[in-house]
Amino acid sequence: MSKEHKNSLANAASAYLRSAMHQPVEWNEWGEEAFQKAQAEDKPILLDIGAVWCHWCHVMDRESYENEDTARVINELFIPVKVDRDERPDVDSRYQAAVAAVSGQGGWPLTAFLTPDGKPFFGGTYFPPLDQHGRPGFRRVLATMAEAFQKQRSDVDESAGSVMAAIEHNESFNGKAGNPGPELVGRMVAAVLKQFDARSGGFGAQPKFPHSGAIDLLLDAASRVSVGDGAKLGEQAKQAALVTLEKMSKGGIYDHLAGGFHRYSVDEQWVVPHFEKMAYDNSELLKNYVHGYQTFVEPECARVAREMIGWIDVWLSDRERGGFYASQDADYSLDDDGDYFTWTSDEAAAVLTPEEFAIASAFYDIGEIGDMHHNPAKNVLHVRRTLENVAKANNVPLEAARERLASAKTKLYAARLKRPTPYVDKTIYVGWNGMMISAYLEAGRVLDLPEVRAFALKSLDRVLAEAWSPESGMAHVVAYGEEGGKAARVAGVLDDYVFVAHAALDAWEVTGEMRYYRAAEAIAESVIARFYDKVGGGFFDMENAADGEVRLGALSARRKPLQDSPTPAPNPVAAALLMRLEALNGREDYEVKALDTMEHFAGVVEHFGLFAATYGLALQRMVQRAVQVCVIGDDANARKLEAVALARYAVNKSVIRLRRDQLGALPPALAETLPHLPGLKGEGSFAAICNGKGCLPPVSTADELIEAMNQAL
């Protein structure tokens, strides 16, 4: 078929959908029109869910969807629908649950066969074009599914009914348990420690994912001053968190030339990654490294965090208008398998002096035999030895080795930039921006990077201006990255609301500007009105349906997400949001709904281990109660007090920076206490520790503040 041919995806806005506009398959976007067509023609729907960064999605596109003969079969027997999982997480999550129920597997590309009303009756992930390695070929699957739909309709309908029940069951946890407390937090920390890989860092075996929530849960446990068993658990948590952060940043999952982390590692040692880089992984890992530095003053954590910011600034940021882009692909074409990021020994030697190559090849483990299956000469840069050992082996002073390594790194990166570059999806998604804004605000404060803080605020202002209104709610997308195509507004899901509300609260803590506090409160009100389950407690991931509204396909299934997958689960994030606000406005109804949400899952949460770390963090916040360190003033001493206040990460601690002229406009709970403290008549800066119910007497020196914080935490 000629390049001139275009299917209806030429009108789409998503980069993933637009990449398929020239395929001979007559694709439809997800929507009523496609479902009406399927019902009118009484044909099953072939649903393909993928993403622009997904290597195997592009493989299946090339092998099957760009094949004229396969396309002819699809167009004749099915109504084909293509979905971008980043653009429609609500659709993806439900059909992932469906395919997991049918085949026991999930991931992308997701290939599902649906009845004309959108109920799934069969599915899988990647199908090869022809039978191979015991897997049925896609052509055979297409013929079998079409025949089953035509000749065994009652079986198909029955199967679809049971799959729909499985989707509902999969995410409607009925595990209510009263009054979850510190013992449950302790058991959750212990469960994470049980999966810790002491040799290579991280959790479990290969493939290895970062599990940022679990790392924060450990860092929080490690930062608390405990005695007895608590101290022992804290020491184990510290060890597990710091070893994991170190091993990941030395592994090939980390981009040693540009900064930033790839999505996951295929091996236990973090050497060979899946090379795509996601905004959401990097936002949460940035927090982990900032928290590691905050608590243990580990210089390597600060270095990695700064390098990550450098990469995000250059590759994932709209510097002009604010906002963070979605992802960078693993490869620039299907013939490239991580080639952009990897090096043969000859490629490295060609751009370095012999002295630089001697140091860099030893430090980054660049050898004649590399790490990649498809091309064993290709090396993934990773660190196996210390620079001290490399310098000694090469008989050069450490300082000379350091200079040569820095120079080699600069040259390798410059050479890499000349290679064809993997695609960056410049779509600005609301929820992922909320996460990244929070990460930038934390990093900007802890590492004292004012320009990072300023870009976070600029990005938040854009999200609030372009994606949020109290009347119509939150959108899921701020802006698409591709020219052409028209996008209908995609309604925000629970994640979008809660991550942006947290970002707005973070912005208020940093600036003292009440417009950010008011935005957080307004979004929280909207979350309760649109997503809260008044009957069973907890929050649905999609807005409650309007009267008479019919949801397409599996969107009729209700979900209350509890698992981190891999972004933090929005139910505990919503509960944490209500707790943060209640500590500032004293709203008892917020406290009740937060507790209700935590109790809703308390009976089942332990079954999820690593994948329930965000719940563990929210529960720790609830158990420990809020500690608000308010730093008032605008001089050198105020900056010093803020630095002291920021030392040590604890999930229930917030550091609020205010100028004296802002004491007249505060959230209700602070307005009742803070302006009436003794000592406000003086000139200098001071700090006061509050907890939503009252404040301790103000202190004005670093030592006094450290003492007061040790008592409060």
Percentage of residues in helical conformation: 40-55%
Radius of gyration: 26 Å
Q: Write down the overall geometry.
A: globular
Tally of separate helices? 26
Structural class: alpha+beta
| Biggest sheet features | 5 strands, mixed
Strand content: 5-15%
- Amino- and carboxy-terminal Cα gap: 67 Å
**Which stretches are low in confidence, meaning pLDDT under 50 for 5 or more residues running?**
none
Strand order of the largest sheet: 1-3-2-4-5
Number of β-strand runs: 17
Overall mean pLDDT stands at 94
Gist of the model:
With 713 residues, this protein is α+β, with helices and mostly antiparallel strands.
